[in-house]
Write a structure and sequence with these properties.
286 residues; alpha/beta; 44% helix
Length: 286
C-alpha cells in the first residue's frame, strides 16, 4: 500500500510516493528519463515490507511542480536534500536510475556523511569515464539532440507517446514489461507545463555536469560510503570500465552487479531481481 504526499519546499512542490513504516531504514528512489516515480512502483511494493521506501517525481516533472526547475545535477541534489530534510529521513540510502543515477552521484559527493549508501543504475556519469566513449556512440544520438535549444520541444510536444515508445523498443530487452498504465503516466508527467523542457534540460546540463564532476576527480574527492553500481546485461558497455571510472571519480567503496535478461529500463524489466540485489547490498553493508 502506497501513500502520496506533496512536500512544500521554498522553490516548488515535490510529489512523493511512500511505502512501509516511517520508523524503518529510509530508501529514496530517483527515476530517469522519460519516466516518473512509477518506474519504481513494483520495487516500492517489495521494499515496503522491510524499509521506508520513497519514490519521487524529479523537480519539474509530473506532480513535482517547480516554476524554474534545476537541471544541473548538483543543483537537483540540493533539492533532493531539502526533500530528505522535509520528510525527516535519517541517513537514507539514495537509489537512482539513468538521470537519477547522475543525481545520486552528485548527492553522494555533497552529502555522503548524511547518507547510508548509494545505488547507481544503468547510466554513465558526465565527465567520468567512459563518458567520452559514450558520447561517441552513434546509437545514443539523443544525447546531442536533446541538448539543442528549443528544437526537441518543437518536434516532440504533443507526440510524447510515439517518441517515448521508440526508446522503450530501442534500449529495453523487454519493452512489453513496461505497462500501458506506466506509459500513460509517463506521457502525462511530461505533458505538464514545462516538464518536457525540464527533461531535455537534464541533457543540456551535461557539459556543466562534466565540468563539475571532472573538478571533483582532479581534486581527488572521495566518497567513503558503500555504493552499488547496477547495469542491465543487455545494456551493453564494459562493466569493468564503468567501475574503474566511478572508482577514479571518488566512489572508493564500490560494488558492481549485472542484472540478467534486461536492457536499460531495469526497474521495470526485472524489478524483483533489481530489488533482491539492492536488498542484499543493504543488508550486507548498511
Amino acid at each position: 500500500m502506497t501513500n502520496h504526499r506533496e512536500i512544500e519546499l521554498k522553490r516548488g512542490v515535490v510529489h512523493a510516493v511512500e511505502a512501509g513504516e516511517e520508523s524503518k531504514q529510509p530508501i529514496l528512489f530517483l527515476h530517469g528519463w522519460p519516466q516518473n516515480w512509477r518506474a519504481y512502483e513494483r520495487i516500492l511494493e517489495l521494499a515496503g515490507w522491510e524499509y521506508h521506501a520513497i519514490a519521487i517525481d524529479l523537480p519539474g516533472v509530473g506532480k513535482s511542480l517547480f516554476p524554474d526547475a534545476p537541471f544541473v545535477k548538483d543543483d537537483i541534489a540540493v533539492v533532493i536534500r531539502e526533500t530528505v530534510e522535509a520528510l525527516g529521513l535519517s541517513k537514507p540510502v539514495i537509489v537512482g536510475h539513468d538521470v537519477g543515477g547522475q543525481i545520486t552521484y552528485s548527492y553522494l559527493h555533497r552529502y555522503a556523511e548524511e547518507t547510508s549508501a548509494g545505488v547507481i543504475m544503468d547510466v554513465v556519469i558526465p565527465g567520468i569515464e567512459p563518458w567520452e566513449e559514450v558520447l561517441r556512440n552513434p546509437y545514443l544520438w539523443h544525447f546531442a539532440f536533446h541538448s539543442i535549444p528549443d528544437l526537441p520541444e518543437a518536434l516532440v510536444s504533443g507526440k510524447q507517446s510515439a517518441y517515448f515508445e521508440f526508446f522503450y523498443h530501442a534500449i529495453a530487452a523487454h519493452p512489453e514489461r513496461i505497462s500501458s498504465e506506466a506509459k500513460e503516466d509517463y506521457i502525462g508527467a511530461y505533458r505538464e507545463e514545462g516538464a518536457l523542457s525540464t527533461g531535455f534540460n537534464w541533457y543540456r546540463g551535461f557539459a556543466e555536469d562534466a565540468r563539475r564532476n571532472g573538478a571533483l576527480a582532479e581534486a581527488n574527492a572521495k566518497v567513503m560510503v558503500p555504493v552499488l553500481y547496477l547495469r542491465g546485461e543487455r545494456s551493453g558497455g564494459d562493466l569493468d570500465a564503468y567501475a574503474a571510472g566511478l572508482t577514479d571519480g571518488g566512489l572508493v567503496n564500490l560494488r558492481t552487479e549485472r542484472i540478467d535478461d534486461t536492457g536499460h529500463f531495469i526497474t521495470e524489466e526485472q524489478p524483483d531481481a533489481v530489488w533482491d540485489t539492492i536488498r542484499r547490498f543493504i543488508v550486507e553493508f548498511v
